[in-house]
Amino acid sequence: MLAKVKSRTILGIDSYPVEVEVDISNGLPAFELVGFAHSTVKESRERVRAAIKNSGFEFPNRRITVNLAPADVKKEAPLFDLPIALGILAATQQMERNLLDNLIVIGELSLDGRVKPVKGVLPIALGTLEDSGVRLLVPRDNSQEAVLIKKVEVLAAGTLQEAAGLLKENGEALRVSCQELSEEQGKTEEMVFDYEEVKGQEHAKRALEIAAAGGHNLIMVGPPGSGKTMLARGFPSILPEMTFEESLEVTRIYSISGLLKDNLLIRKRPFRSPHHTISNAALIGGGRLPRPGEVSLAHHGVLFLDELTEFRREALELLRQPLEEGEVTISRMNATLTYPARITFISSMNPCPCGFYNDPHRECSCSYLELRRYQKKLSGPLMDRIDLHIQVSRPSYQELTGTSPVESSIDIRVRVTRAREIQNKRFESNGIYYNSQMTAVHLKKYCVLDSLSQKILKKAFHSFKLSGRAFHRLVKVSRTIADLEGSEKIQPEHVGEALQYRPLDKIVF
Ligand SMILES: Nc1ncnc2c1ncn2[C@@H]1O[C@H](COP(=O)(O)OP(=O)(O)O)[C@@H](O)[C@H]1O
Ligand SMILES: [Mg+2]
User: Is CATH 3.30.230.10 the classification given to domain 2-174?
Assistant: First the structure.
């Protein structure tokens, strides 16, 4: 007897169809699983056997062959327990075979027959849209994640018995109603930290405002205790809200990483600040069972590397691809995986080992050689990918103790949001959301420069010895500054301001 059950597997951040074929024939009792399955999938056999028995069904004492097709796609997650178990029940006529028509099934089983939640339900639900008229059967604990995709009809089961028994009568009893996501849901608005508390540093705050508005990368260089970490930690408080499409892209990454809390759509831009001892795989993604790294978990949000020079140079060099292309490619033996990683990269560092290079009030005690060695930790190509270089100096006594009102994060955020809305509208039909994502084609179309701006840029290009990349990044920052002002055209003063944020090109590096 042969039974077929449709399922899906995850590769990168997408899902692909898999057909689970179960054949039961006479012969010596055996349970074979074929079709390019990783050991996590092979272990499925033991779970399925126990779950079937412990759910009050009969496990056939015959020769069982399970094939996961297509055989050239590697299957790594324990998603197939439930489809295999249902396939066996259908092939042994313990349930009707036609109940499995037009149904996609995923789920891990525990030995007692409960259906346990799995990773990657959101991309699987999205993939289900490819076939019209099919329904999706997921573990009960994943149901709210699956119904985020409204067009998919979702069924959910808590146990194998429930899944097999209740599929009858059109699965009505298992159907999950699609909850309307209210505007407020998932909008955790606890303001972590407000820029009101940071005294002085107007120059740095302005640069951070530009970074937030256009998604530009930024580095802060300054002596210890000047407020660099404080400025970076407050950054989420001025970030614009995510659009629905951005939310969905981010939620998808968290879904395959198994990091989705309460199965809700992620509405707040991610802010990731890994420690400098982080491994390459944890930063970039990959590993034996490949998973997205910090750069992807920060997609459409912020990756903050504090004390940048403490990170291994090798790890920093790996950031070059995501910073340039907005994605990470990981080569595997049989496939190449791509994870999105469109991030705003924020970092901080001291100017030298002692921390006081270029400080007007304290003398730097580093030798020339020490300085060279320190600065060499950051390569030119990495610095070239950072749009805004700012020097943060220690706040003065007056600034720290002054009582004059300081602008709050909410006020800054209003401007950032307005500028971002202009960008969302501009790029509506371009498949991008903000200025830093622009490619050469967009630059040509949306960043027309008048003759005076061109003149300024030409001069800067030669005196700063800018690379082609740095030049284009400068134009994008100018575009954001113009958007913050609500100006449709890029004016010479916008280009002038963008140029102020590249001091490291001439001073340090
Ligand atoms: N501009 C500032 N306004 C208010 N407090 C500040 C400022 N700069 C530094 N501080 C105080 O100093 C502490 C250390 O700042 P921090 O951001 O960790 O400095 P850095 O990262 O530059 O070494 C802060 O927690 C804060 O109490
Ligand atoms: Mg610090």
Answer: yes
